[in-house]
Amino acid sequence: MLLKDKKVLVTGASTGIGRAAAISAAGHGADVAINFLAGDDEAASCVAAIEALGRKGVAIAGDVADPATAGDFVAKAVEAMGRVDIFVNNAGICPFHAFLDMPVATFERTMRVNLHGAYFMVQAAANQMVRQGQGGSIIAVSSISALVGGEYQTHYTPTKAGVHSLMQSAAIALGKHGIRCNSVLPGTILTDINMDDLADPEKRARMATRIPLGRLGEPDDVAGPIVFLASDLARYVTGAALLVDGGAFVNLQ
Length: 253
Fold this sequence. Notes:
The protein is an alpha/beta fold. The chain has one domain (about 5-245): NAD(P)-binding Rossmann-like Domain (Rossmann fold, 3-Layer(aba) Sandwich). It contains seven helices and seven strands. Strands 3-2-1-4-5-6-7 form a seven-stranded parallel beta sheet, with helices on both faces. Strand 1, helix 1 and strand 2 form a beta-alpha-beta unit. Helix 1 packs parallel to helix 2 (about 40-50), helix 3 (about 65-80) packs parallel to helix 4 (about 105-130) and helix 4 packs parallel to helix 5 (about 155-175). The chain is globular. About 45% of the residues are buried.
């Protein structure tokens, strides 16, 4: 019960890594508010899974690309749960596309969701934590793509590098308030974001052979590191980036 009675907020949590993190936090004793854009049924089932663990769950709809959503999400979560102890910025998109003919709309939407959304969400959560005066923990889901390139990710990789950098700078800005800021950098995780890209069984198998642990990741593989960084086990960890990639990054040979 690493997060007993903590109040946790997770963005983009109706599916994938966000959903796994929200349910895992509840399993460790937290009440959880999730943000989601679409998929009412998925959001409701995530809340049901949280409540099945004996914790309070609440789902709050909103598009993180709109800066107003950040304040709305935090305010409604506080109204429902009383405070914010832990904030997990997870919402993100990656519409794969070639570089030379990248549509402006695709580039700008990716930037607004992944980077602008992270900035304003983290800012809103941090302001609430400062008002509370009891510190807190902020974890952002970056990506191995913050460190390496991708042919069809020229719009995506800069956003994930930006999220990683945001956590480093926020760690400095918020340390005096007792707020820790860290990022997790997942490798290839089987989620909706890459479902189409990995639909080919041969490509999936080829990707797995490049990973020392021999398999692609699952959302639950990332949830554990998020819970760790949120918990008091990581009370002296801030400004850090934790790779969660099965060893893919170091496997150059």
